[in-house]
Amino acid sequence: MDISEIAITAAMASGFIAIHLMVRRLNFLDATPRSGWLSFAGGVAVSYVFLHVLPDIALHQREFADGMGVGAKEAESIIYSLTLAGLAVFYGLERAVKMSRGESRKAGEGDKMGNRVLYLHLVTYGTLNALIGYLLLHREDAGAWSLGLYFVALGLHFFTADFGMRQDHPEAYDRLGRWVISAAVLGGWVLGLVVDLSPVLVGCLFAFLAGGIILNVLKEELPEERQSYFMPFVVGVLLYAGLILAERHWV
């Protein structure tokens, strides 16, 4: 790992942190119908997962099989089960948030999460952010183009995820949440400097991350009350798909 890679990834980790800290000031996102920029960002994140993350996992299937000491089919089942697990874990978290907000409204305490669910939310998203910070230095697919695609896709994903978190509990997000998830990104990046996990484990973490991103995007885009925009979502999907395919075939 050379100095230039450390400097570039440090700048990218700082960019992620800036998004977490500043998203509350982007008042144009807080609108109904939903801002087209959030739908565009969601399309980019989904495109990145399906055309970059999942194909990379499939490409390294033999390496996973050898590292796990299992057959190719078993390794494939394990990896994609982790993707499903990532989706299921974050779905369970979102259900807990909605139930907690409902209980708070019934108790006359306003539309907010209870403290227990809030802390669970912070731990889960903090872990996800630490993983994203770590993967700045240890992705499956190395190279400048791959790193750039990763940064843009995950940065745009943070806009949608943070916006959703702030809607769930604005006061707690501004007071505590944004600092916790920002520290998690930095902590994950620092961990990447000093710890080199096995390629198999990195692939497994990447698979879990993919499931979490898919769920986070869909839960922000699909609910009827969001009044999301289809065309910006499609533009995000197609634009980023073009960049990913160009990176794979011509770079």
UniProtKB/TrEMBL annotation:
Protein name: Zinc permease
Segments forming a coiled coil: none
Keyword Membrane: yes
Keywords on record: Membrane, Transmembrane, Transmembrane helix
Domain of life of the native organism: Bacteria
Membrane-crossing segments per the record: 6-23, 35-58, 78-97, 118-137, 143-164, 176-194, 230-246
Top-level taxonomy: Bacteria, Pseudomonadati, Pseudomonadota, Alphaproteobacteria, Sphingomonadales
